[in-house]
């Protein structure tokens, strides 16, 4: 069997990536070692940028129908939460949604695009050469080989693809663990009382409630040791003085603070994303979200490489752009975990309590809260360090012309050249770029927290003086042209034609 790309793993990252590749017309095969989809849900939320990604592809409605918006989140379990509601986004909230539902919806999306995971088929090894990758697979009927142009490991922290592909995974093993339990029966005041004692309790729907509990007496237990119901109830009683009326456990698990980051996200024709690229303590619920964002960044770049129009260095920019994000997440989760871990140790409880109180006070300062909220939500993600503040950042979801949102314009996975000046032309790139001319006297209206209509080039503060914007398929800005105060023009690099060549490759006639 020959395919363009093999994706190992049918979790959220693998399914998101498969959908992105299929959208671009890439032949993709998803291999998943599990015979059935995951019923239990370790992750419980989609943060604002992840909801934006679903909106960018026109599938947010299904997620919103099943999830519950939450306007704020937490950082290290501090009393003062992160305020997502004031962030510049059409989705300024975290969507409380079990991972099983996220996987189901992404699987439906992939199936609509012609991709269905091959379950019960585990990648066991690979060999790459100059022309492709031979992927070794163990299926229900025996071992076989798949020949592919590329293979992407979305197969978790113990990724076979990463190891066989020669990608290092430096970091540290677990030194601290906590317990997780889903109960079908809870007392009427259980959630409130748990919260009063620092125990995370969250209703999951269908009568099931999730409890997350670090326990001083069990914090050094290896993550490989199963959690018993008696162990969890004893720890719950120590923390709250009661078992809170819980019964009928549906899932008991232990998780730790092992922290590792791939030393490179690409080695030739082998790439990694999601937990295969980074693992950490699930502080502030960032893991699943970072994986989805990895997939969105990689999908269109890998498709461009497969289709033959990728400019030099485009696929390598996946590592250049996403590795620093992984490092940032690893760093902030280590800091949060330390604040939680030391509070469980009697000798540190008092000084760490003072530190937590000071940090909680700082979170009450708007600028500090916005900074950390932007980081955890991933809304502050910016690729590169261009002089123009818009380049590399998320494109604001403004309405241009006759009621068309920018997010709606990128749903087919192409670039979008928003032309406010009327001097751009994308004919040679029409298979990769949508050209949208915006009337100079038409409205540009923000869908985020910057309300009202304004004449071009106002609309959104970041668009002041803009003549043209090239928006990438993942919703980030590749290039901007602005009017200078003196009447000249300032561009982030070459003009619009140079920008198209730099990002979308040679025009079709040249590619042909």
Walk me through this protein's architecture.
Its cofactor is FAD. This is 2-polyprenyl-6-methoxyphenol hydroxylase-like FAD-dependent oxidoreductase. GO terms for molecular function: FAD binding; oxidoreductase activity, acting on paired donors, with incorporation or reduction of molecular oxygen, NAD(P)H as one donor, and incorporation of one atom of oxygen. The chain is α+β, with helices and mostly antiparallel strands and 512 residues long. The chain has three domains: 2-172 and 259-377, 3-Layer(bba) Sandwich (FAD/NAD(P)-binding domain), CATH 3.50.50; 177-256, 2-Layer Sandwich (Alpha-Beta Plaits); 398-511, Glutaredoxin (3-Layer(aba) Sandwich), CATH 3.40.30. The radius of gyration is 24 Å and the shape is globular. Helix content is 31%, strand content 26%. Residues 440-458 have low confidence and may be disordered. The longest helix is centred in the middle third of the chain and has 27 residues, at 317-343. The chain contains 14 helices and 29 strands. Strands 1, 2, 8, 9, 10, 11, 18 and 19 form an eight-stranded mixed beta sheet that branches. A five-stranded mixed beta sheet has the order 24-23-27-28-29, covered by helices on one side.
As a whole number of angstroms, the C-alpha radius of gyration is 24 Å
What percent of residues adopt helix (DSSP H or I)? 25-40%
What is the C-level CATH assignment of the largest domain?
A: Alpha Beta
Total number of helical segments?
14
CATH fourth-tier homologous superfamily of the largest domain:
FAD/NAD(P)-binding domain
In whole angstroms, how far apart are the ends? 27 Å
Shape estimate = globular
What is the residue-mean pLDDT, rounded to a whole number? 90
Q: Bin the strand percentage.
A: 25-35%
Q: What does the main sheet amount to?
A: 8 strands, mixed
Overall structural class, as computed from helix and strand content, comes to alpha+beta
Number of strands: 29
Stretches where pLDDT falls below 50 for ≥5 residues? 440-458
Number of discrete domains: 3
CATH fold title of the largest domain: FAD/NAD(P)-binding domain
Which CATH architecture of the largest domain is right?
3-Layer(bba) Sandwich
């Amino acid at each position: 069997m020959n395919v363009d790309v093999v994706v190992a793993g049918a979790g959220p990252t693998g399914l998101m990536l498969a959908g992105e590749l299929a959208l671009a017309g890439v032949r993709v095969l998803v291999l998943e070692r599990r015979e059935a989809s995951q019923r239990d849900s370790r992750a419980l939320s989609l943060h604002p940028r992840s909801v934006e990604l679903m909106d960018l592809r026109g599938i947010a409605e299904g997620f919103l129908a099943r999830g519950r918006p939450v306007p704020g989140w937490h950082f290290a379990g501090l009393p003062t939460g992160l305020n997502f509601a004031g962030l510049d986004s059409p989705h300024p909230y975290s969507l409380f949604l079990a991972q099983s539902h996220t996987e189901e919806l992404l699987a439906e999306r992939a199936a609509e695009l012609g991709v269905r995971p091959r379950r019960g088929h585990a990648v066991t090894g690979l060999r790459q050469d100059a022309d492709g990758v031979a992927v070794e697979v163990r299926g229900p009927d025996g071992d076989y080989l798949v020949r592919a142009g590329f293979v992407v490991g979305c197969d978790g922290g113990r990724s076979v693809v990463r190891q066989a592909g020669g990608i290092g995974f430096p970091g540290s093993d677990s030194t601290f663990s906590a317990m997780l339990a889903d109960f079908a029966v809870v007392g009427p005041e259980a959630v409130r009382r748990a919260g009063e004692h620092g125990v995370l309790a969250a209703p999951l729907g269908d009568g099931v409630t999730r409890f997350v509990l670090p326990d001083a007496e069990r914090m050094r237990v290896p993550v490989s040791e199963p959690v018993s119901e008696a162990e969890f109830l004893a720890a719950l009683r120590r923390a709250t003085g009661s078992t809170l009326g819980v019964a009928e456990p549906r899932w008991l698990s232990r998780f730790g603070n092992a922290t590792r980051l791939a030393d490179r996200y690409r080695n030739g024709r082998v790439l990694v994303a999601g937990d295969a690229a980074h693992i950490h303590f699930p502080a502030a619920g960032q893991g699943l979200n970072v994986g989805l964002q990895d997939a969105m960044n990689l999908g269109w770049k890998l498709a461009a490489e497969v289709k033959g129009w990728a400019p030099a260095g485009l696929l390598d920019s996946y590592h250049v752009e996403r590795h620093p994000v992984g490092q940032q997440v690893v760093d902030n989760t280590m800091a949060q975990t330390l604040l939680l871990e030391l509070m469980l140790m009697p000798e540190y409880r008092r000084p760490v309590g003072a530190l937590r109180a000071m940090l909680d006070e700082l979170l009450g300062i708007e600028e500090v809260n916005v900074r950390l909220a932007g980081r955890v939500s991933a809304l502050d993600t910016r690729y590169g360090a261009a002089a123009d503040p818009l380049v590399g950042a998320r494109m604001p979801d403004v309405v241009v012309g006759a009621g068309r949102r920018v997010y709606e314009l990128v749903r087919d996975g192409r670039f979008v050249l928003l032309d406010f000046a009327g001097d751009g032309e994308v004919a040679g790139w029409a298979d990769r770029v949508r050209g949208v001319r915006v009337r100079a006297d038409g409205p540009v209206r923000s869908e985020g927290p910057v309300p009202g209509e304004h004449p071009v080039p106002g609309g959104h503060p970041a668009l002041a003086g803009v003549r043209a914007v090239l928006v990438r398929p993942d919703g980030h800005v590749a290039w901007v042209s602005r009017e200078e105060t003196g009447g000249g023009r300032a561009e982030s690099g070459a003009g619009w034609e140079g920008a198209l060549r730099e990002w979308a490759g040679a025009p079709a006639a040249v590619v042909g």
